[in-house]
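User:
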Amino acid sequence: MSLTRFICLLTVALLSGPAFATNVIMQTPFGAVEIELFDEETPETVANFLKYVNDGDYVNSFIHRSDPGFVVQGGGFTFVDGAPVAIPTNPPVINEPGISNLRGTVAMAKVSGDPNSATSQWFFNLADNTNLDSTNGGFTVFGQVTGNGMDVIDQIAALQVWNAGAPFGELPLIDYSGPPSPVTEDHLVMIDIEEVNDFLINPGLNDAWYYPVTDGQGFLIIVYPLREEIFIAWFTYDTARPDDSVTAILGEPGHRWLTAQGPYAGNKAVLNIFVTEGGIFDAGAPVPVTTQDGTLIIEFSDCTAGTITYDIPSVDRQGVIPIQRITPDNVALCEALGAQATE
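Assistant: Predicted structure:
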């Protein structure tokens, strides 16, 4: 190894470890890729990238360009109903060059001749592309692949590349036999990117939670740490009982109970929803019926706040509900258990 390359690698190593570095994980058909972001060195670029991540813009997106020995690029398109759709872009972010485009770094793509034109697209450097440090005002490196992530990126780069017409002239495809066969989602390198949250679900979350913006949204949460499972009772109710002729959104008027249960990992759980209906609280002999209907994703940002994302197909209802505790009684316990888990 040359002295120049050693110094460059040492520089990147030092720059890639800020005190409060944000991490994201990119899921691919070949495994997960963890990326450490350079929050301190490229704050505007990281903020821009995370907005796309947290807005869900990279869900069902795909790698649309592979130039082996140079770069693998994504962030431009999703695949919806069998066709590519351009990701809606936010205003361009200011260029923040300075970190070298060495192998394993992640940089923003941009328009030729316009240094401040980066929006949603980015690329992995497959080699030491130091020529990009001075091209078009310098390409902003805003992250570094960690662990064995480059093994995954190299597998993507090893795929056969096909010309599917602009802007897909260098499209990597999986097990594609060639034209005239249509390109399907199974052929594309589909990805999803999520921010890593260090918070861990623990029994200190056991409590009554609610959505403070509306009346009638309550959640009872119970965590079973030995089984690593979580149970949620989700109840909705009417502040005034409607007339019996009113068609309820779920179940009968005045009585709509849902539960969800299943395993959790980290700060997140993906659960099946069960709807119970067929009785009301003031009836003499209710006969409830329970059916599985949809999914619920619960994700905690800390001991006091979280979100519930739900999809109930039978009534075609989807949405996201921010939740918080009704009382702070268990917050100290939650924080103590979280600190023990990370020691």
